[in-house]
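Table S5 (text form). Sequence records supplied for joint modeling of the two-component complex.
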Amino acid sequence: MPRDRNDNSVSLHVSGFKDSTRPSDLASLFEPHGRIADVYIPKDYYTGRPRGFAYVQYYDEEDARRVYESGESFTLDGRKLEIQYAQGRRKTPNQMRGQSGRGDRRRSRSADRYRPSARRYSRSRSRSRSPVRRRRDSRSPVRRARSRSRTPPRRRSPSPRRAGNSRRSPSPRRLPSRSRSPPRRRSISRERPSRSRSQSHGASPRRAASPRRAASPRPAASPRRTDGWGEEPKVSEWEEGNGAYGSYGW
DNA sequence: GTTGAGCGTT
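The corresponding structure-token record, covering 250 residues in total, follows.
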């Protein structure tokens, strides 16, 4: 990521669109006004649902300014979008933790983002086959398989923290808030609390005897593969217009 | 290699 062009890099805070809206939709909407550097739609950390707003960042700050100042009203899917300047820089996970005091409740799950350049998919393989499966490993499969340290609670390894502190973070001092555990898809075992109480007959000691790493909360698979990465038909369209940004993909 | 857990909605 071109990082921030400068500290002034402005992102537009856009809201008012439907939950079904995808980054690419916004991208194609705003692209005509300037090169889009990034479109990011935060999603709830747990539910994975879009939080209702997005950040559209122009590569050139001026474009953002123009869009904003022009007061032009953008409508997407019949809804008028509200546009503002983004207030702060994106918070990093760490920052979020810091706010845990208050934001503890609204941690947000991986967000939907849209980066120009995402041109992978050479037609080397028959992409028409199973899109889903393919999508999964479309991005450096190997990489992904190994570095499970990065991607948070996508589907399998639920605890982002677990990964992070493994060695990466300099100061592994994890906050005491154990509520940190991520997307726990309502594990059943968790839901039968009082049961054991009056369960005089079934309680066999030997069972409880084997302490099996109850520590790892397994979020039974993410809600759905609402990765956002999924099928993005229009993307290509948008992308084509901006094939110039090749910068990353990650 | 610079992150993707950035302002929501009382």
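Note: The beta strands of chain A are 11-15, 36-41, 53-58, 75-76, 79-80, 82-85, 112-114.
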